[in-house]
């Protein structure tokens, strides 16, 4: 089909846009789907949330967990049954507790009992000193199932009790079970919710009965391919993936993939006005949009791969997992998506079908008017934007303390309330027990030292097996508090000083402490690495030094403002009791990598326009041309991350809200006002040291309309 006024580059475009090419691409994707879709369903089978898998092998609590698992009964799940009555325990209550204990101990005998070791008499019920509660501990072998499958039957078995006698089933295994219950089915929930949100936004964006379906289909194919790819990575390379990272994978692919679709459709709609052949129009659209999309993907992938330097396995695992997701989204949106659009032709845009040789008339529009206002009040726009960001950053003075595991739940489950009851009636057992392993010859000496350590309420010697002796230590302070962590540190210091004992300290709270310490160390390493890598990518893309430094500075300020504003919401409005230890690093990574995306889309277009119009007018032209589509992309990405805020776990709510708020802040204020204002103030020096930073006289018909000094490139 003929193309009007074909430029010199039209012939190659025609060859690249042969009739068979789109069908070949679609056929290859169908073949790929036949292989990958079945594998995508297996991803949940390789996810793990065990601390021993998440923490590095060098962590002391990891060594304890590994050693514990290798000993008889070491893999048992520990549940704590706390019975209480406000008016005091009655004889019938005490008899009921004894009956429950004996029944459950027979039903779930630990491995040690089956081997002829401890019996149920070694784990009697324990009354509280105030006479209002009784408790007992039950160790259930993993052969009976995972905590989430056991905790329900245990609670059901203890329902037969006198009226008014309350029971809370708590303990480390119960907390794990309740936590796993939150994540049960989370992948499907996140996937379906994300699909619904993206569908609604695409329908609102295009106001077309059909067009919204094409990007959704392509992104869905990318998501399933990404899930299958990650499954193969986990099986082949032993990468650690937890439920949190699995949910983030879905969010990333849908959010970023939809962004790419919006940018490509915007360019494709433009080129359809100038090329009658839809295949040729798509080739030109890809030439215009693909470089920025590829650069954006490369920036995010490079940032994610920086996580490989982290010690925490769940954090380092997110690097290749996220990178695989972004890569699948990139490939799908630059191959399958355009191929389907070409096959369906112009009619896919109905009712607003772009007609050949009738280019849409350029109107100033909202973004054009905004650019004009920024041009006239550059300093006001700059200082005003920085003022808003600065005010939001004040929120960092709020409660940024670490969130306890028990405070992770939006609605506290029985296992969490049980810890409160336990502390009320058994203050000597206030914290989660620590486990100490030492050589048998030193057990008594280590026990004496631990009992004399400040913050320790009780230390009980355990069994000796496999060349090790274990000691159970109960701290006086509540679980996962700073005071309890200080006690763990003091105990570790004390037992490490016993030469030859080889003593190591672990347990649930020790694992959380090691996780927090490792994350803090990872932040100090990964955050500077991300900044350096993203800066290098920007420098290569823009072939400049000043522009990347300016863009990076705006993103950092934007992150501080988003974090501060979010902390205010978490603390003052939502009443959260801290910020999860993993949130700052994850939020920084996503907001820097994804926030830079919109600046890449804007400044790459500005650089393209600067060649013709000069720096000032080029930036205003770029803002006018990309403002709508980038804002739509920002809304879509923010909405996909906001899906996490619908889940009943504080950590996911914090990540979802913080990233969504940061993306909106970056798209609506930083990219729309601050970056254009700074570019207009800096002028052509923005592109230093490239040739665009040098003044060049422009033809009369291309002189900028921006008021101010002589035209500058």
3D structure, described in words:
The protein has 713 residues and is α+β, with helices and mostly antiparallel strands. It folds into four domains: 1-59 and 185-361, Multidrug efflux transporter AcrB transmembrane fold; 76-181, Alpha-Beta Plaits (2-Layer Sandwich), CATH 3.30.70; 376-397 and 519-713, Multidrug efflux transporter AcrB transmembrane domain (Multidrug efflux transporter AcrB transmembrane fold, Up-down Bundle); 433-506, Alpha-Beta Plaits, CATH 3.30.70. Helices cover 62% and strands 7% of the residues. The chain has helices at residues 10-16, 20-40, 51-54, 60-70, 91-107, 111-114, 147-157, 172-183, 186-206, 213-237, 243-272, 278-305, 313-334, 336-344, 365-376, 378-393, 414-425, 443-451, 482-496, 508-542, 546-573, 583-613, 615-642, 650-682, and strands at residues 77-84, 126-127, 133-140, 166-170, 434-438, 456-465, 468-475, 504-506. A hairpin with a 2-residue loop joins strand 6 (456-465) and strand 7 (468-475). The longest helix is centred in the C-terminal third of the chain and has 35 residues, at 508-542. It starts with 9 loop residues before the first helix and ends in a 31-residue tail after the last helix. The model is unreliable at 1-16, 112-122 and 704-713 (pLDDT under 50).
Condensed summary:
This protein has helices spanning 10-16, 20-40, 51-54, 60-70, 91-107, 111-114, 147-157, 172-183, 186-206, 213-237, 243-272, 278-305, 313-334, 336-344, 365-376, 378-393, 414-425, 443-451, 482-496, 508-542, 546-573, 583-613, 615-642, 650-682; strands at residues 77-84, 126-127, 133-140, 166-170, 434-438, 456-465, 468-475, 504-506. By secondary structure, it is α+β, with helices and mostly antiparallel strands. The two termini are 39 Å apart.
